[in-house]
Amino acid sequence: MIEGGWCDLITSDLFWPYAVFFWGVVALRVVFRRITRAELLVLGLLVLHHLLEIFQLGIGSNWHFSMLPHRYFGVAAPLAWCWTAYGLVQLWGMSSSTLRLLGRLTVLVLFLYVVGYLGVMKTYKAYVRGSVRDIQVALEKFDPLIRADYRGPSRWEPMPYSSVDYFSPKRPFILGAALSGDWAKYDTPYPRLPDYWMMYEGDEPPKDARGKRWPAIGRVRSLRSHWVLYRNPCSP
After folding, report:
1. In whole angstroms, what is the distance from residue 13 CA to residue 16 CA?
2. Max Cα–Cα distance, the chain, nearest Å
3. So what's the pLDDT on residue 92?
4. Who has the most CB within 10 Å: 160, 179, 186, 220?
């Protein structure tokens, strides 16, 4: 089952506030037989790009993937935004005064939502006071403790190879709480990684292959959460 559903391919991956106008304009142009061959060519390129990305993900993971990452499909979104821009221009310049007022209000609301809320407020919440910044602050506080504790090599030699997942050869490897759920899904080529694991206080501590809990070596208070740092007993 694809996480988020295949519907994401025609909404989120095209940036949904713009995708609404894109699909609406395309549907109206098809219904009223105004769509041109050039437009069909661009639509075909957009669909072809999405299909090739799905095949790439499927072949790379042997068809064992549970989500469709937006960053892979979103690169073709500007092909769709031409219709979005066309629809917004038409709304702005409608002939009827009443419809023109409604159209311009729609354009302004969309602008404020995209620029004001998505562009400013959500970025501020995530990277200034939100979960992303919370993890960064916790890691900064754990940094002296990790530097004093770790005595192993600075790199993996040789570097284990994986055709599916991305791994850095640098050590120590610190796993954050934001990645904990995903990490458990992978059969990682690093049997002894991560070297350290940051988790929210109160979460179930990580365990080794025998079911023994990793030792906690430090606790800190970040912006909004309490964190615990666990050390892998197999790590140098």
Report:
1. 7
2. 74
3. 82
4. 220
* Residue 5 zone, left/alpha/beta (φ > 0; ψ -120 to 50; rest): left
Helix 77-92, helix 16-31: angle, nearest 10: 70
Residue 220 lies in a domain: yes
What span, in angstroms and rounded, lies between the C-alpha atoms of 232 and 236? 9
Beta bridge partners of 227: 200, 220
Residues 189/212, Cβ–Cβ less than 8 Å: no
Residues of the chain below pLDDT 50: 1-4, 178-191
Structural domain that includes position 10 = 6-92
Angle between helices 16-31 and 37-60 (to 10 degrees): 130
pLDDT tens digits along 10-59: 565 677 777 888 888 888 888 988 889 999 999 899 888 888 888 887 77
For 189, residues 6+ apart whose C-beta sits below 8 A from its C-beta are 160, 161, 162, 165, 167
Task: Report whether 174 contacts 212 (CB < 8 A).
Answer: no
Burial class (CB in 10 A: 0-12, 13-18, 19+), 112: exposed
Q: Residue 212: inside a domain, yes or no?
A: yes
Q: Looking at the structure, do residues 77 and 140 belong to the same domain, yes or no?
A: no
Sheet containing strand 216-221, strands side by side: 174-175, 196-200, 226-231, 216-221
Q: What pLDDT is recorded for position 145?
A: 92
Instruction: Classify residue 103: in a domain, yes or no.
Output: no
